[in-house]
Specification:
By secondary structure, the chain is an alpha/beta fold. The chain is built from 14 helices and 15 strands. It folds into 3 domains: 37 residues, no CATH class; 156 residues, 3-Layer(aba) Sandwich (Rossmann fold); 142 residues, Response regulator (Rossmann fold, 3-Layer(aba) Sandwich), CATH 3.40.50.2300. Helix 10 links the parallel strand 9 and strand 10. Helix 4 crosses helix 12, helix 4 packs across helix 13 and helix 7 packs across helix 8. The longest helix is centred in the C-terminal third of the chain and has 20 residues. It is globular.
């Protein structure tokens, strides 16, 4: 139907009707006057006005937070736990400064190249204002330089290598740093476990493992301890018999294996199968339930320095978060989920203090964080954007992670 025909259909041809012609949709301008239309119901006028206001007022612009996490691949268990924690934190605080927060997740597949690509996509395609990720240090190191160049704040919940934040303006972490963790592990080995001779087994494919082993070694030797052997493995290896044979020759009273949960669990099983009874001390990469499912009884008696234990949820936010997490997922709160929550809440707090999501202002506010009562405790951002906080020590007993102690920095 053409425009002219439509008008004729609406008004009627020349304002008149022939015999048998359809009644026009409107007879005259008078017929359509607002007074005539709305007189039967004044409520209609109010309704139209309200609808007009809703249509005319724009919705609050959403703030996009990007996440690059390993949802598949060797580090998937850690990435999935962090994602769970961030989602719970988002449920507890879905808005900041009156604006809705949208989470945008990209899977890094536990790969450095994928991690770099994920950060580029989040910045260029998804237009995020801040980023949470990655989980492991090597993949975080692939992503933070890209965020740094784009002036987008990037906070890693759990990457502990000092290189992640070193000399960077926009890179932060929620966890402690490896030089602190390594020193605390050495102190615990020397003072609590009374170890004097230690064999070190390192996954040389992971920056985290290499760095943590170096910090442990330096501190343990400084205290008078002896490193009797240093052996190397690669992520994904299944047979450690050659390395076990080499470390046995040094007659150690402790094995320090600061590797990720799969390799640590396999080491424990193979030690048990070979009848080697030497205790293991590991790092925070072991704090994953899969350590128990893969290692079984063999991991009982193992110690590791940890990011968090649910007994450490002493702040109001920590208790509220733990209740929400455990109600949602029907399992105990773990360190990775707790630090995922801290990463999100730190961004919400700093955006509030910065008065918006501008990258430079948010980074400045993050660097100035002091006494923030987060999920894992009170957080103050120290030099190189490393939180000043204590290190938890956990022991595996009867297939459970049992809290041992909290060791504060010296």
């Amino acid at each position: 139907m053409g425009g002219r025909q439509g008008l004729q259909r609406f008004w009627g041809k020349k304002g008149k009707r022939r015999k048998g012609e359809d009644k026009p949709l409107a007879l005259s301008l008078c017929t359509l006057s607002p007074f005539r239309l709305f007189l039967p119901s004044l409520k209609s006028l109010a309704l139209i006005a309200a609808l007009w206001l809703l249509w005319a007022v724009p919705a609050a612009a959403e703030i996009k937070i990007g996440l690059y996490l390993p949802m598949t691949g060797p580090a998937a268990a850690m990435g999935q736990m962090v994602w769970e924690g961030v989602q719970v934190a988002h449920q507890l605080q879905p808005q900041v400064l009156g604006q809705p927060v949208k989470l945008v997740l990209v899977d890094t597949r536990s790969d450095r190249i994928e991690a770099a690509n994920a950060v580029s996509r989040l910045i260029e395609k998804d237009k995020v204002t801040a980023i949470i990720g990655e989980v492991i240090s090597s993949d975080t190191l692939a992503g933070v330089p890209i965020a740094e160049r784009a002036k987008i704040p990037n906070i890693s919940p759990t990457a502990t290598s000092p290189l992640v934040t070193q000399n960077r303006r926009f890179a932060f972490r929620a966890a402690y740093v490896d030089d602190l963790q390594g020193k605390v592990a050495a102190r615990f080995a020397w003072e609590n476990l009374k170890a004097k001779r230690v064999a070190v087994l390192i996954d040389q494919a992971q920056d985290y493992c290499v760095g943590l082993a170096n910090f442990f070694t330096q501190e343990f030797q400084r205290r008078g301890g002896q490193i009797v052997s240093t052996s190397y493995i690669q992520t994904g290896e299944q047979d450690f018999s050659a390395q076990i044979s080499a470390l046995k020759g040094g007659n150690p009273d402790l094995i320090y294996a600061p590797n990720y949960y799969t390799e640590v669990a396999l080491l424990a099983k193979q030690l048990q199968d070979l009848g080697v009874k030497i205790p293991i001390l590991s790092g925070d990469g072991a704090q994953v339930p899969e350590l128990l499912s893969i290692g079984g009884e063999a991991v009982n008696g193992m110690y590791f320095t940890a990011l968090f234990h649910r007994q450490g949820a002493t702040t109001e936010l920590g208790r509220k978060f733990m209740q929400a997490y455990e109600s949602t997922y029907k399992k105990p709160l773990d360190g990775f989920a707790a630090l995922g929550g801290d990463g999100y809440f730190l961004l919400m707090d700093t955006m509030t203090r910065a008065g918006g999501a501008d990258g430079g202002k948010v980074a400045q506010a993050l660097a100035a964080t002091k006494d923030f009562a987060g999920v894992t405790g009170v957080i103050t951002m120290g030099p190189n954007h490393n939180p000043i906080k204590g290190v938890t020590v956990i022991k595996v007993e009867n297939g459970e992670f049992v809290y041992q102690t909290m060791i504060s920095p010296e």
